[in-house]
Write a structure and sequence with these properties.
With 174 residues, the chain is α+β, with helices and mostly antiparallel strands. 31% of the residues lie in helices and 13% in strands. It is built from 5 helices and 6 strands. The protein has helices at 14-23, 33-38, 74-83, 112-121, 155-172; strands at 64-67, 70-73, 91-94, 107-110, 144-146, 152-154. The strands form 3 sheets. A two-stranded antiparallel sheet has the order 1-2. Strands 3-4 form a two-stranded antiparallel sheet. The longest helix has 18 residues, at 155-172. It is elongated and about 95 Å long.
């Protein structure tokens, strides 16, 4: 029904004939994208719990899903499947702070800046564990400078860098 290919045995085209023989039906036996995706998610905890990804994960814990010839983050796919919105360059943020979680109730769209602010607020940003600058000055008190971007800087290193710059300018003048 609805097939425009050349009809062969049992009034079916070759593709539908083989499907009928192998699967007992002419319908496509392959699972849909949604079926393929959600069968890899453990929803046993209920609608409020985290739904961990049960297939391949990256070292950081994020699930990966093979889609259109490449790996995509599972939590992004969960968001896009449930909200019907393509994220594009936007980030998908976890409110539960659990990387393998795919519960759409725990996911929201945001910018890269939103994601960094979220990491800082949850004390997960890799730079927050550092207590000293690369030159050994302590990130504390009057020596700590917070830039507009939210990054920390060392006041002693800034002074040294500015002094070297001024010395270079003095040396280059006629």
């Amino acid at each position: 029904e609805g097939c425009t290919k050349v009809v062969g045995a049992k009034a079916l085209c070759s593709m539908h004939y083989l499907r009928q023989r192998r699967h007992g039906t002419v319908d496509d036996p392959r699972p849909t994208l949604e079926q393929r995706f959600w069968q890899r998610v453990d929803k046993s905890g209920g609608p409020e719990a985290c739904w961990p990804w049960q297939a391949n994960r990256l070292p950081a814990g994020y699930g990966v899903f093979w889609y259109l010839g490449r790996n995509v983050y599972a939590h992004r796919m969960a968001y896009e499947l449930t909200h019907g919105v393509q994220l594009g360059k936007r980030h998908c943020l976890h409110s539960c702070d659990n990387p393998p979680c795919n519960n759409p109730a725990h996911l929201r769209a945001g910018s890269r800046l939103d994601n960094v602010r979220d990491m800082i607020n949850k004390k997960r940003h890799k730079e927050q564990a550092k207590t000293q600058c690369p030159h050994g000055h302590v990130y504390a008190g009057a020596n700590l400078v917070i830039k507009k971007s939210g990054a920390r800087a060392c006041r002693a290193c800034i002074r040294l860098r500015n002094a070297r710059y001024r010395d270079r300018l003095k040396g280059s003048s006629p």
